[in-house]
Amino acid sequence: xxxxxxxxxxxxxxxxxxxxxxxxxxxxxxxxxxxxxxxxxxxxxxxxxxxxxxxxxxxxxxxxxxxxxxxxxxxxxxxxxxxxxxxxxxxxxxxxxxxxxxxxxxxxxxxxxxxxxxxxxxxxxxxxxxxxxxxxxxxxxxxxxxxxxxxxxxxxxxxxxxxxxxxxxxxxxxxxxxxxxxxxxxxxxxxxxxxxxxxxxxxxxxxxxxxxxxxxxxxxxxxxxxxxxxxxxxxxxxxxxxxxxxxxxxxxxxxxxx
Length: 258
Ligand SMILES: NC(=O)c1ccc[n+]([C@@H]2O[C@H](COP(=O)([O-])OP(=O)(O)OC[C@H]3O[C@@H](n4cnc5c(N)ncnc54)[C@H](O)[C@@H]3O)[C@@H](O)[C@H]2O)c1
What we know:
Blueprint: E1 9-13, H1 18-29, E2 33-38, H2 41-54, E3 58-63, H3 69-83, E4 86-91, H4 106-127, E5 131-140, H5 153-173, E6 179-185, H6 191-196, H7 200-209, H8 227-238, E7 249-252
Parallel strand pairs: 1-2, 1-4, 2-3, 4-5, 5-6, 6-7
Helix pairs in contact: 1-2, 1-8, 3-4, 4-5
Bound molecules: nicotinamide-adenine-dinucleotide (NAD).
């Protein structure tokens, strides 16, 4: 992989908000040429404009739902037509609808898997032929993939499958020199987290303190992650500095998975 410097090519999903947006911003400020994919076309346009202002070599805006296999194939093809072979793929698109064992509906269960798991599969399958032989892939999963959480049954199960499928794909792609790693964030200050907080003012302090009734230990570092904290790990794993790192699942959660 050519290091993530001027001219490297990258595709980022979930680029319109939160962690995906932070990844785009960090890649843009290093001069990468970036394809932004999100189902929210308006958000893609806004983040694309930011990326150009930050110094992206090229910006390609793609509106697609990652759960739609044909739409993902078309979007990846457009990205490669515009940018050429990809050096980096970061998959951050995801959803979370709270619900425990007795609450989760069949539709909610299915939608978590369609977006969080099958969506990543679509990106890996569409992306593999377009990646350079020494490219890098990072999939944003969740610490809930490995730590049981109450009220997040479908989300956690879909993320566990996502982490596993990424590492299995990475094992197959290692023969081409392609590295695949999984970043598993904890509570990160994005729209997804704020929607979980019934009381936005008390939400952060309750998250930091934890809740013994829900078996949550809180966050030992006593801070909620900024999207940039997670994006920094994603960009490290995409970069030449991580050239001997593959098949890893790395928590970025301030110690919350204790
Ligand atoms: N915020 C957290 O606390 C947290 C913790 C652990 C893991 N994560 C994971 O990080 C990733 C990014 O989440 P975030 O916190 O930035 O959330 P976010 O809601 O701010 O951003 C998610 C983005 O994904 C896009 N998206 C959703 N469904 C899509 C689909 N079907 N097709 C294409 N785009 C779609 C949304 O439009 C949005 O732009 C997700 O995979 C999430 O599960 C977040």
